[in-house]
Structure prediction request, 288 residues.
Amino acid sequence: MSDHLIVGGGIIGLLTARYLSQTGASVTLLERRQIGRESSWAGGGILSPLYPWRYAEPVNALAHWSQQHYRALTDELQADTGIDPEWIQSGLLILDHEETAHATAWAAKAGTRLDLIDHDTLGRIEPAVSEHPGSGLLFPEFAQVRNPCLLKALRQDVQARGVCITESAEVSHLLHESGRIRGVGTADGDSIAAEQVIIACGAWSASLLRELGQAIDIIPVRGQMLLYRGKPGLLKHVLLHRGHYAIPRRDGRLLFGSTLEDVGFDKTVTEQARHELERAAQALIPAL
Prediction:
């Protein structure tokens, strides 16, 4: 029986497994399908809320703490595994001038550097961007990671630390004994005991916790994005404009997204989303 059983093999589950294993505890991690292939894989890897001033203070406090530790984490993972998670301090350049007052007030309160970028400077630092936005708000200290690489590094790291990973193990319910959670039951009929159970299965967490009378407001949202393959250096910063973002990777790939669709767990991609995203991407970055 493990000291800790983690339900969910996304980035939160893997990081939890990593830190617990560093204490010498025995850890088992169960993933309903494949490790890291749900929202952790599909995300863009921007290490900040897109418009931080629109979020509650606890969200920004957690993001700020994470931002202070991410580079050290990725350096450690690369040293231990040889896999580069591609932490890049690319900055976040917001091209919505109407957000200036909110952004300035938030940055002053949070103690975060914010540079106001005029039209000429924008053309110099990001010549591929269309002239339409006119000016920008640059958070130069914000960073990104390449989340698929981060997930690969984390998986290799935790397995080297002795974490037991089981894929295709869908947890269907929790096991109760004397008023405590003592393990989990799977859809295949297996019972797995543990001293402590940690729920880290994202949008699937609500269904597991419901049997405890805990109603949590976590729902699945579909986000579609485009992947362009281009030459390195087309963009230098992560861009944000009218709710769309462009994320340049080190090898020249560029992500552009995203839709936000309340369609449950449906991961089907649509031609409508593709065309809408293409129009927005080409309007912002004509070279695309």
Notes: Residues 1-45+146-219 form a domain with the FAD/NAD(P)-binding domain fold (CATH 3.50.50.60). The longest strand covers residues 191-199. DSSP finds eight helices and 13 strands in the chain. The helical segments are 11-22, 39-42, 57-81, 100-110, 119-125, 147-160, 205-210, 271-284.
